[in-house]
Design goal:
Blueprint (H helix, E strand, L loop, with lengths): L1 H33 L7 H25 L8 E6 L13 H16 L4 H14 E3 L5 E8 L12 H40 L16 H50 L4 H27 L9 E3 H17 L15 E3 L1
Antiparallel strand pairs: 1-3, 2-3, 4-5
Helix pairs in contact: 1-5, 5-6, 6-7
């Protein structure tokens, strides 16, 4: 029965764990994408990158940007050319891409007044990085790209939420699986005892719940009670059969003794012997028919109780006659009819 428990528990818990993990990581991802930017000051980043470019060149710039430790967790800097491509061939986040395209478009198409143009051009020149081959790059902070398993490197908050959800679901599904498997286990144990001959074996009211398994346990106990009653009925029936077989044998013994003591009444006693033999044969036939039947005898035949009582009186009078006892019986005017 432990296999059923582990199947239920494993299926429930693993399914819920997958759903919880997917829901948590998706919700955190959406929250990350919708959260406002809180990156470092772009002017400080521009100054730092300009200094690195002048000292170490393009290779030093690439090494600095490729190292996640140089930026806050989950952040990086993209170097975007006028075509909207990253210098390191990274995929641009949608918001960073749109912002870069807007800046490059403004720089190439906008024709403001002379003073405003001078200020705008100066700000743009401060943000642009010019490589040795004359390529201009726009440095723009943004969220760091994640690889295929990048979510595994995400913040610890989502792992804490997932761990708490996993612990709660573990306890919940453990109790649920136990509540489902335990009554089935008790039914199995009771069935094994019942098969071994213990007719008093029961599942018990503790397993009677309102679900289908509880109803199954209750029906099992009803079946066990019915089998116990049928077993007791059969035992009582066998006792009655033994008594019915013993009675004609006793009368045969009495008739034999009378025949030995009173040979002159041999005709009467032989008649009695033949009658008792016929009774025994009839009882044997009934017992054989009962043994072949699949269920207890159930008939719509009717029996007159007065006739049955009269037969019992005749048998008793024969036995009592050997001791000199006489039996008188007054038959009622209305005979009673018994069906079945």
């Amino acid at each position: 029965m432990h296999s059923l428990f582990w199947k239920l528990f494993g299926a429930f818990w693993v399914t819920s764990l997958v759903i919880l993990a997917a829901s948590i990581f998706v919700s955190f991802k959406i929250a990350d994408e919708q959260a406002p930017y809180s990156f470092a000051d772009p002017r400080e980043i521009d100054q730092l990158l300009q200094a690195i470019l002048q000292v170490d060149g393009v290779e030093g710039l690439e090494k600095h940007i490729a190292n996640p430790g140089n930026f806050p967790a989950g952040q990086t800097v993209y170097l975007i050319d006028s075509n909207g491509k990253d210098f390191l061939q990274r995929k641009l986040p949608e918001r960073v891409y749109k912002r870069a395209r807007r800046i490059w478009s403004s720089a190439s198409q906008h024709r403001p007044e002379r003073n405003e143009s001078h200020r705008h051009a100066r700000r743009l020149r401060q943000s642009l990085l010019v490589t040795d081959d004359g390529q201009m790059l726009l440095a723009m902070p943004g969220p760091a790209p994640r690889g295929r398993l990048g979510f595994l490197l995400a913040g610890s908050a989502r792992w804490a939420v997932l761990g708490l959800a996993a612990a709660i679901s573990l306890l919940s599904f453990w109790l649920l699986s136990r509540s489902l498997a335990r009554p089935v286990d008790r039914i199995s144990e009771a069935a094994a005892l019942l098969a071994a001959g213990d007719m008093t074996s029961r599942v018990g009211e503790g397993a009677y719940t309102r679900d289908e398994i509880g109803q199954l346990a209750e029906q099992f106990d009803r079946m066990a009670l019915e089998l116990d009653q049928q077993s007791r009925t059969r035992l009582e029936m066998f006792r009655n059969i033994a008594h019915e077989l013993r009675a004609p044998l006793t009368r045969l013994q009495i008739a034999t003794e009378l025949l030995e003591r009173k040979p002159e009444s041999s005709a009467q006693q032989l008649k009695r012997v033949r009658y008792e033999i016929e009774r025994i044969e009839a009882l044997a036939s009934q017992v054989l028919a009962l043994a072949r039947a699949e269920q207890l005898y159930n008939s719509d035949d009717s029996t007159l109780i007065g006739q049955t009582v009269r037969q019992v009186i005749l048998d008793a009078e024969f036995e009592a006659g050997a001791t000199g006892v006489h039996i008188e019986f007054t038959e009622p005017s209305d005979d009673m009819l018994i069906k079945g």
